[in-house]
Amino acid sequence: MEGEELGRTIEAVLLVAVEPLAPQLLAELLEEPVERVEEALVVLAQGYQAQHRGIVLVRVAGGARLQTHPDLAPYVERFANREVSHRLSTAALETLAIVAYRQPVSRGQISSLRGVNVDGVTRLLEQRGYIEVVGRAEGPGQPVLFGTTDLFLERLGLNSLKQLPPVEDFLPGPEVAGAFELDLQAALGLGVELGTDDT
């Protein structure tokens, strides 16, 4: 298959694919070497970028897919008019973050970190396809261990978990921690003074 024809064919297949397609799968389907498919994917991606098209070719979850250009998201979201029920609650997002950064992790470990029971939230995340059982822990009861799925990577636009931002990026800086410590000392000092006044 000629280079241009190979690119057109890959484009057509990606357009109808529901999930990102691995280059190996595309190579089998098109009966072409993986190297040629990889080259064609790069050419397609560069072409969309150079022409500033409304769609882009991205690599996510180990595969390739076509998606709308990020800067057009407000218009696409307005068209899609997604229902609120499809969005995740704060509790679900917190739980998902714990699984993403601590996996494999048990339900008990998640509950300990969040300070609340997470049975319902983990069930929801499993149903939505963002987390899955990846094994069992050793020890009493052998609780199930959760990890994130390819769908999780796909929705975040990541190719692998290594692309997650460092957890340190979400922690407060030293100045915030210092201010918090001063506030805490002041609050504790006030509590002591009130206790002294009462006696």
Structure description:
- The chain is an alpha+beta fold.
- It has 3 domains: 3-73, Arc Repressor Mutant, subunit A; 85-164, Winged helix-like DNA-binding domain superfamily/Winged helix DNA-binding domain (Arc Repressor Mutant, subunit A, Orthogonal Bundle), CATH 1.10.10; 173-199.
- It has helices at 3-16, 23-30, 34-50, 73-80, 90-102, 107-114, 119-128, 150-156, 174-198; strands at residues 55-60, 63-68, 105-106, 131-136, 144-148.
- The chain has a 3-stranded antiparallel β-sheet. Strands 1-2 form a two-stranded antiparallel ribbon.
- The model is unreliable at 190-199 (pLDDT under 50).
Poorly predicted tracts of residues: 190-199
User: Taking Cα atoms only, what radius of gyration do you get, to the nearest Å?
Assistant: 24 Å
Q: How far is the N terminus from the C terminus?
A: 91 Å
The helix/strand series, from N terminus to C terminus, equals: HHHEEHHEHHEEHH
Q: Give the CATH H-level superfamily of the largest domain.
A: Winged helix-like DNA-binding domain superfamily/Winged helix DNA-binding domain
Strand order of the largest sheet: 3-5-4
- The CATH architecture of the largest domain is Orthogonal Bundle
Largest sheet: 3 strands, antiparallel
User: So how many helices?
Assistant: 9
- How many domains, in number, for the residues? 3
Cα shape: globular
Describe what is shown at a glance:
By secondary structure, the chain is an alpha+beta fold.
